[in-house]
């Protein structure tokens, strides 16, 4: 039953893309769904109970971000990318992205200890399929991760989904990126107001808005968008500020 739901959705939404869906792809996402259900009561990964809705809202929408980034050339056909996912919860959007594109090497920054623990269990189980071998779970707040010497200004791409307002997210994300790296955030109906509110933060942190584009593949009650920001230059050592400050006093 679960595998048929997964197969139907992958076929419906990905048939017009360049992504290849195999029997193994269906098996991986079926196992992923079962693992989410297994751990959800303890970890609180999702409020959704319907299998079809979980596949659409979490798997397909995450893959849609991959398709969007391929479409604008952020993810090319040839290179490995070091990717950070801020506040992934059950692994969204980065795990579905990496399942579909093995060149993505992931660091998932999850501040909730219980979620980080069960997310590590999910990744460990999915690795039995021979995937996600370069995936790390980091149980830390984004502000703290952005100050770690081994982590700071070292990544090609940072992604996020439903974590915080954009003016807060850029302070989390840009310190993790190398010069020229990309931050991509999925946003809802307030996207243009959030972009306006983030102008000062982008200026102070050396972020340049590249584009705001519709999230492809799937339609919801409200159109979702992808905000793409490029990091220019190095960031002042003051940023990110200590944990909690970006939310209380956004730039």
Description:
By secondary structure, this protein is α/β, with parallel strands linked by helices. The protein has one domain: Vaccinia Virus protein VP39 (Rossmann fold). 42% of the residues lie in helices and 19% in strands. The protein has ten helices and seven strands. The chain has a seven-stranded mixed β-sheet with strand order 3-2-1-4-5-7-6, with helices on both faces. Helix 7 links the parallel strand 4 and strand 5 (177-187). Helix 3 crosses helix 4 (94-100). The protein starts with a helix and ends with a helix. The mean pLDDT is 95.
TL;DR?
This protein is of the alpha/beta class and 251 residues long.
Rough shape? globular
Number of helices: 10
Number of distinct beta strands: 7
Quickly give the CATH architecture: 3-Layer(aba) Sandwich
Provide the structure class. alpha/beta
The helix/strand series, from N terminus to C terminus, equals HHHEHEHEHEHEHHEEH
CATH C-level name? Alpha Beta
Radius of gyration: 17 Å
Share of helical residues: 40-55%
Name the average pLDDT. 95
Number of domains: 1
CATH topology: the name is Rossmann fold
Major sheet size, sense and barrel closure = 7 strands, mixed
Strand content: 15-25%
Gap between N and C termini: 48 Å
List the helices and strands and how they pair.
Blueprint: H1 2-14, H2 23-43, H3 51-71, E1 81-86, H4 94-100, E2 104-109, H5 113-126, E3 136-138, H6 142-145, E4 155-161, H7 166-173, E5 177-187, H8 191-197, H9 199-205, E6 207-214, E7 225-231, H10 245-248
Helix pairs in contact: 1-2, 1-3, 2-5, 3-4, 7-9
């Amino acid at each position: 039953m679960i595998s048929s739901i997964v197969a139907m959705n992958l076929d419906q939404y990905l048939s017009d893309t360049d992504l290849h869906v195999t029997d193994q792809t269906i098996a991986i996402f079926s196992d992923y769904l079962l693992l989410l259900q297994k751990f959800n009561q303890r970890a609180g990964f999702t409020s959704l109970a319907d299998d079809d809705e979980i596949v659409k809202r979490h798997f397909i929408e995450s893959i849609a971000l991959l398709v969007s980034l391929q479409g604008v050339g952020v993810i090319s056909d040839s290179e490995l990318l070091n990717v950070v996912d801020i506040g992934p919860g059950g692994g969204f959007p980065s795990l579905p992205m990496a399942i579909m594109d093995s060149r993505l090497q992931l660091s998932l920054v999850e501040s909730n200890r219980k979620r980080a623990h069960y997310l590590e269990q999910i990744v460990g189980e999915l690795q039995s399929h021979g995937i996600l071998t370069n995936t790390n779970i980091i149980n830390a707040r984004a502000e703290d991760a952005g100050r770690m010497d081994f982590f700071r200004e070292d990544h090609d791409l940072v992604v996020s989904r439903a974590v915080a307002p954009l003016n807060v997210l850029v302070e989390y994300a840009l310190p993790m990126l190398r010069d020229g790296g990309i931050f991509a955030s999925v946003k809802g109906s307030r996207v243009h107001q959030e972009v306006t509110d983030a102008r000062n933060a982008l200026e102070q942190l050396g972020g340049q808005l590249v584009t705001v584009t519709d999230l492809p593949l799937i339609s919801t009650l409200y159109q979702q968008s992808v905000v793409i920001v490029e990091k220019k230059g190095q960031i002042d050592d003051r940023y990110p500020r200590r944990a909690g400050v970006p939310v209380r006093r956004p730039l």
